[in-house]
Design brief:
Diaminopimelate Epimerase, Chain A, domain 1; 8-stranded parallel beta sheet; 19 helices; 22 strands; globular; binds zinc ion
């Protein structure tokens, strides 16, 4: 059963912040309540503003008039003067990769437009090579073949030109491909004689020779598993850096959609150790890489149901049903506009996917399955429905991640299957133009991320950045969902826009619901955790230019300020 609603409080361990205050209190020092007032305070996306909030012991004690707030606050209450700023429930980023994001600080940044062509990528990698120590690899990330002048992926030859002695790898912005030089392939044991791994492909040229491009995660992991692993202290620093960035943009929770993606199984220990040391400033909801999850369940049958450990809570497992549209690896029902022979590939057979979902479902966990293409989405919806029909949990809240090409019908069936979604709204800004002009054509591109359909059908859904794929900034994601503006300034599929209130609801209450936390987070009603963001303007009464540039004044988690500007 999903640990949802108010039931998650009570006997569960208190969030770390609240625990600290409790210890202070037992030493005999009464902890004063805080009254937050003199601004526009929204307890949820659709309610009229209230005059004041009372925060005490990590929770909201009152939300209403100033008199009501003072009446429950008791003596010695501190006043927090908003000076006209606005308060919203803390933003919940429902799909990011915090450790991956933090680690990219140490890698060669091969993104465009910084890198205009492959020569630029080589130059960037050479700069990293010069500063290399020990047995490290040259590691680049973020190249985008369709933004490079040559309009292709780099090859092993391109990377051999950087070094033939040191392993050199560069990963695609989607995270679904990596290019390796000859040395890296050698170390990883990838040979010309090898056949394709499950869930991936070793790309070959016209003569059948390996190009160095590892296609999809099965192939990518052959290389990644051989690369030197970061130490746990590096993973910890990366995680804390990412969460500090999130807090500075008003986020009070993030969902890590793929624990183990970069640091292997050690990433789970990293989160647990950070939680035990009280070093997690905001809440982290974890979804463990699927293969690790199934491996661990024997030893830890309560893997998903143990409850929060400090600010960290592992609730589910992550799988990938397809790749990305821009990589031509999303599974479509109709061919790509730019590659008439190709519909992309499903990474799982239907029956296999059903079995995986059943395993996680039976263990009380949530499955979060990446699906971009319409064929992948349909397959995952059918798998969720099959598991439910076959005795699965009725309120499973299994999730589809990205949901880029869902039809209205898919959304209806997903709801009927007890499922939910986190939608990659930032796709519209970063890839919308190329989706329309290159990959899938005007008609299909105009309804990527069908947000208005999701609202009208009643789907529970979050909005996400997939950081580091796009920047860690839920307020910017909100702007994208509201405007559907692409990077060239075109409005893509205006009928699928959300209102600011709908987008805020998705980024707060609905995203809390996604992880079964709607009884404690997502609104600022009495009894809820005091997780909130203070903004420099009222985002429900801002025009699109104002929405593009919202400043965060402060972020509170469990009654503690974790960020102040
Ligand atoms: Zn992701």
């Amino acid at each position: 059963m999903l640990r949802s609603g108010a039931g998650r409080g009570g006997s569960q361990k208190q969030p770390t912040g609240a625990g600290l205050r409790q210890r202070t209190h037992t030493r005999g020092i009464a902890v004063a309540a805080t009254i937050i007032t003199n601004g526009i305070i929204r307890t949820d996306a659709f309610a009229e503003p209230v005059e004041a909030l009372t925060v005490s012991r990590g929770r909201i004690l009152a939300a209403g008039s100033r008199d009501e707030a003072e009446a429950v606050a008791g003596s010695g209450a501190q006043i927090h003067d908003l000076k006209g700023a606005s308060v919203i429930p803390g933003l919940v980023e429902s799909h990011v990769h915090p450790i991956f994001y933090g680690l990219t600080r140490n890698w060669a940044d091969c993104r465009s437009p910084l890198n205009r062509d492959i020569a630029d990528v080589q130059k960037t990698l050479r700069a990293t090579l010069r500063n290399l120590t020990g047995n490290a690899w040259v590691r680049g990330w973020g190249y985008d073949d369709t933004l490079l002048f040559e309009n292709r992926h780099p090859t092993r030859d391109d990377l051999d030109a950087v070094s033939t002695d040191v392993p050199v790898i560069v990963s695609h912005i989607s995270g679904h491909f990596v290019v390796a030089n000859t040395k890296a392939m050698e170390v990883a044991g990838v040979t010309e004689e090898m056949s394709d791994p499950a869930e991936g492909r070793l790309v070959r040229d016209g003569n059948g020779k390996l190009t160095g491009l590892m296609w999809e995660l099965g192939a990518v992991n052959l290389i990644m598993d051989a690369a030197p692993k970061p130490r746990e202290s590096e993973l910890q620093d990366a995680a804390v850096h990412a969460l500090s960035t999130a807090a500075s943009r008003g986020m009070t929770s993030v969902h890590d959609l793929g624990i183990g993606l970069m640091g292997g199984a050690m990433e789970l220990e990293t989160w647990e150790h950070l939680a035990d040391a009280d070093r997690i400033p905001i809440r982290v909801i974890g979804y463990l890489r699927g293969d690790y999850a199934t491996d661990l369940l024997d030893a830890r049958p309560d893997l998903f149901t143990a409850g929060p450990r400090g600010n960290f809570d592992l609730v589910g497992a992550k799988y990938w049903a397809d790749g990305s549209i821009q990589g031509l690896s999303a599974a479509l029902t109709q061919p790509y506009s730019c590659a008439q022979e190709s519909c992309g590939d499903l990474l799982f057979e239907f029956d296999h996917l059903v079995n995986l979902v059943k395993t996680i479902d039976a263990a009380g966990g949530q499955c979060a399955v990446h699906a971009n293409g319409d064929r992948a989405i349909r397959t995952v919806v059918d798998a969720f429905a099959e598991v439910k029909k076959d005795g699965g949990r009725s309120d499973s809240r299994h999730r589809i991640e990205h949901l880029q090409m869902a039809s209205a019908n898919d959304i209806e069936d997903l709801i009927a299957a007890g499922g939910a979604a986190s939608v990659f709204a930032n796709h519209i800004y970063y890839w919308g133009d190329r989706h329309r002009d290159i990959f899938i054509g005007e008609e299909r591109a105009s309804r990527i991320e069908p947000l208005a359909d999701a609202v009208s059908k009643g789907l529970h859904f979050g909005l996400h950045s997939d950081c580091p794929i796009t920047p860690m900034d839920s307020l910017r994601t909100l702007w994208t969902a509201v405007t559907r503006e692409t990077s060239s300034g075109v409005t893509l599929g205006p009928e699928q826009r959300l209102t600011p209130a709908q987008a805020l609801h998705s980024l707060t209450a609905d995203s809390a619901w996604l992880a079964g936390a709607e009884g404690t987070r997502g609104t600022l009603l009495p009894g809820m955790d005091a997780d909130l963001a203070v903004l420099d303007r009222d985002i429900l009464h801002s025009n699109s230019a104002e929405l593009a540039d919202v400043g965060v004044v402060g972020t509170m988690v469990g009654g503690e300020w974790v960020f102040t500007a």
